[in-house]
Automatic annotation (TrEMBL):
Matching InterPro entries: GppA/Ppx_hydrolase, HD/PDEase_dom, Ppx_GppA_C
GO biological process: regulation of transcription by RNA polymerase II
Identification of the protein by name: HD domain-containing protein
Family: Belongs to the GppA/Ppx family.
Length: 195
């Protein structure tokens, strides 16, 4: 995968999310990006993940909910549409732009169909990033920002996540559902403890 930072800076991505900020969704997007990077950094030594993958995940997380600008329903599809049409992202090569739109737009229930057209190796990398994005999003799915990560590690053949904060128990169901892809792609279960 090509390094996205060669074409687009984080400050430019932040301008895009500010442009499409409704219901203060930008705060959620930044929290999800932070969670995604923490998750990535906690598992990268156990899996074939690179610094390029990390930045791609971060940008995807920052952009994942810009589709709310159009409408909350089907915002995943709207996110993809905005990424593909936003003029400030025109400097991205088409390959990167399509992949960014597919990853960011796949943070919900379904995986973007276009991912199926990539090589098996690239498809697996993208599924690994989508799996991390889904967990990071689930950790703040209520958009209340009350839940904090206090520990993540791969131990005893499981991803173990420790969370704390008001409402932690309410995200467990969502987290279990959104961690299915992670368990499938990384081949380990996700176990969550609330403190």
């Amino acid at each position: 995968m090509i390094n996205i930072q060669r074409y687009l800076s984080e400050s430019e991505v932040l301008k895009v999310i500010e442009k499409y900020n409704v219901h203060n969704i930008v705060v959620h997007e930044k929290k999800v990006a932070s969670n995604a990077v923490v998750l990535f950094d906690s598992i990268k030594q156990n899996y074939e993940l690179s610094a390029v993958d990390r930045e791609f995940l971060k940008y995807s997380a920052l952009l994942h909910d810009i589709g709310y600008f159009i409408h909350k329903e089907n915002h995943h599809e709207h996110t993809k549409y905005i990424i593909l049409k936003e003029p400030s992202l025109d400097k991205l090569p088409n390959e990167i732009r399509f992949i960014l739109a597919a990853v960011a737009g796949s943070h919900g229930k379904s995986i973007d169909e276009s991912i199926g057209f990539y090589s098996d190796k690239l498809k697996l990398r993208l599924l690994k990033l989508i799996a991390l994005l889904r967990i990071a999003d689930a950790l703040d799915h209520t958009h209340n920002l009350n839940v904090s990560l206090i520990g993540i590690k791969v131990r005893n053949e499981a991803l173990r996540i420790k969370i704390t904060g008001q409402g932690s128990e309410h995200i467990l169901k969502k987290l279990k559902k959104k961690s299915n892809l992670f368990s499938k792609v990384y081949r380990i279960p996700v176990l969550v403890e609330c403190f």
